[in-house]
Design a protein that fits this description.
- The mean pLDDT is 94.
- The chain has 220 residues and is mainly alpha-helical.
- It contains ten helices and no strands.
- α1 packs antiparallel against α2 and α4 runs antiparallel to α5.
Length: 220
């Protein structure tokens, strides 16, 4: 049921209760609106996260965390759990973990959220969320110097992204795989990975990813 459908249904149930005395649908309407609130909280948090990511390019200064972002993801998690929606729960867990890792640079706090997200996403068949969790677990492993583990997680994330057609995301993962290859003294592999990633990014209009690829090429 879409967001609009849930809101329309809630209004209809209100009228039946107030004018007809039929209160049997009130709980159902409330649950539907909880789902709307959860989806909106998650989406709002994602917009704030995108603002954080784009801030350096826009303003040329270090971005600061928006204090509203984490509470939005936590509210979404609370609501999805109350609704018994493990797919939504997995996505909210991912975003909480991502915030701790990417914004706060706190892998110790982030990893348990990312691991729970990965497990739930696997159980519900949510390939996009599982690919995101695996990517960030790979990033954590890379930062900790566990290169084989990092490579395995990023390769699995890339496979899933290709499966669901998220090819720009696959190209983004390949930057990390190139850095890992370079760290493992596989220089030729690293450059070949970047060549493929650049071709994908160019084909799919992923201009920001293409810039990161060129930066990686220079560093490697």
């Amino acid at each position: 049921m879409s967001t609009d459908d849930r809101i329309v249904r809630a209004r209809e149930i209100y009228e039946r209760a107030v004018f007809g005395g039929d209160t049997s649908g009130l709980r159902d309407a409330e649950q539907g609106l909880h789902a709307v609130e959860a989806d909106a909280a998650l989406a709002r948090g994602m917009i704030l996260h995108a603002r954080f990511q784009s801030a350096p390019a826009d303003a040329g200064s270090s971005p600061t965390e928006d204090p509203a972002e984490l509470p939005l993801f936590e509210r979404a998690l609370e609501l999805y759990r109350a609704l018994g929606d493990p797919r939504g729960e997995a996505e909210a867990l991912f975003w909480i973990g991502c915030l701790h890792q990417f914004i706060r640079r706190d892998d110790e706090t982030a990893i348990p959220y990312l691991e729970r997200s990965c497990r739930l996403a696997a159980q519900t068949g949510d390939k996009p969320t599982r690919s995101e969790a695996l990517r960030h677990l790979g990033i954590a492993a890379h930062a900790a110097g566990r290169l084989d583990e990092a490579r395995e997680r990023l390769e699995e994330s890339t496979r899933l992204r290709r499966e669901v057609g998220a090819l720009a995301g696959a190209a983004s993962n390949m930057i990390g795989l190139a850095y890992i290859a370079a760290a493992q003294d596989r220089g030729a592999d690293a450059l070949a990975i970047l060549d493929e990633a650049h071709a994908i990014a160019r084909t799919h209009g992923a201009h920001a990813i293409a810039r990161h690829i060129e930066q990686a090429r220079t560093q490697i």
